[in-house]
Design a protein that fits this description.
With 232 residues, the protein is of the alpha/beta class. It contains 9 helices and 8 strands. The longest helix is centred in the first third of the chain and has 18 residues. It is globular. The structure holds pyridoxal-5'-phosphate.
Length: 232
Amino acid sequence: MVRENLREVQEKLTAAALRAGRKPEDVLLIAVSKTKPIELMMEAYEAGIRDFGENKVQEILRKAPLMPPDVRWHMIGHLQKNKVRFLIGRTVLIHSVDSIALAEQVEKESAKRDAVTDILMEVNVAGEESKWGFRPENALSGAAAIAKLAHVRLRGWMTSAPYTADGESNRPFFRELRQLSEQAAEAGLLAEFDRNYPVPVLSMGMSCDYEAAVLEGATMIRVGTEIFGERG
Ligand SMILES: *Cc1c(COP(=O)(O)O)cnc(C)c1O
């Protein structure tokens, strides 16, 4: 089941990338496995997935020892400051940095461990009350503050657009995030590029809208339901 679902997602991802004149391999598929059991995650692993997204620190800590060591864990959910210390060194990327105070906590805990932590800034481009994230008008000044932190590397941007039955309707939000990213890059606010992050990260697109996100330049998409089925 998971294998077939993955094939379908990868086909749609590839088609959207080609339509946009992009290379499919420039878009990383993150399998969002929150609430899902290890058995299903292993099916995804065996089909080639190495990047898994979770929205709770406890779930990453519980699952990590049960999965192969080359799994890359992405923290995609709202992160409380008092949980940051458990996460340092355990994730490849924290997508959900939604305040300067949180970035400062990541700085503090990373410095203690002599680590440098890669992060994205979450921006609430759609302005939904229920969502976390910087307001777009505060994103660049926030990035300027975060860029000064020595143990935090700002790699790019993340957003969650509204749930929609028609992904196309979210394209303006994805476009806005891309434009913000371009402005930040021009202002020199993003970390130096390296092999793992050759371009600024744009983490956008979920089950309902990842094709639209790829058309607008997503470099990471976060797909749960379309791979693992509905969550209970
Ligand atoms: C749950 C979640 C996803 C995946 O959502 P699906 O609709 O199941 O694909 C992506 N991003 C974030 C931040 C999430 O919390």
